[in-house]
Amino acid sequence: MSTTPGLTVRPREDADLPRLLEILQRSHELVGYPVRASVVRADWLALPTELVSAVAVHDGRVVGHVALHPATGPGHDAGEQLAAQRWSAATGTPAERLAVLSRLVTDGSVRGAGLVLLDHAVATAGSLGRVPVLLVTPDADARGLYLRHGWREVGTARQQWGEHTVDAVLMVLAGGED
C-alpha cells in the first residue's frame, strides 16, 4: 500500500461534500474529469447506491475522494450492463461480486494521494468479498497511472454520459482473476 506522511483515509461524511465539489469542479476544468460539467453535484458524487466511499485527508484538509459502486443493479443502462459482462468474463467473477472503483479525484496538492485512495479502494473491495474493476476514458491521464500500478485493459464498452458517447476502457487488476 502507498504511504504519504500526514495522509489518512477515512469514510466520506456529508460535511465533506462542499470541499469535494470544489475539487471535482477544478478537476473538470483542468483534466476533463468528470467529462460533463453538469455532474459536478453532490448527488453524482455521493450516489445512494454506492457500496462505500472514502476521502483522503492531509493535515486536516480533505484532498481527495474515491467510491466503490455495484457493477449491476437497478438503474444500470445498456452500456453499464455491457461493461459488467465484460469485466465478469475477464475476471471469472459474477457481476454481482464486482465493485466499480469510481469518483477517484484529488486536488493535486499531495503527491501520492490518488494512489493511497486507489490502494484503499482495492483493499476495501477485497474486504467486501468483491473484485475491483474500473473504466476510464481513452485519453485520460489516469489510464497510464492505472496501467503502471497493476491494472490491465480488457476491452471497451460504449457509455452514454449525457450528450457524450464514450468508448470507455475497461480495466481489471492484473492477476485479479479468481
List keywords for this structure.
5 helices; single chain; alpha+beta; seven-stranded mixed beta sheet; Acyl_CoA_acyltransferase; Aminopeptidase
Strand order of the largest sheet: 1-2-3-4-5-7-6
Rg on CA atoms, Å: 15 Å
Q: Which structural class matches the secondary elements?
A: alpha+beta
Instruction: Report mean pLDDT, rounded to a whole number.
Output: 90
N-to-C SSE series?
EHHEEHEHEHEE
Q: Pick out the low-confidence regions.
A: none
Number of helices: 5
Number of strands: 7
What is the name of the CATH architecture?
A: 3-Layer(aba) Sandwich
Largest sheet features: 7 strands, mixed
Q: Proportion of β residues?
A: 25-35%
Tally the structural domains.
1
Domain N-acetyltransferase: 7-176
Organism: Klenkia terrae
Pfam families: Acetyltransf_1
Protein name: GNAT family N-acetyltransferase
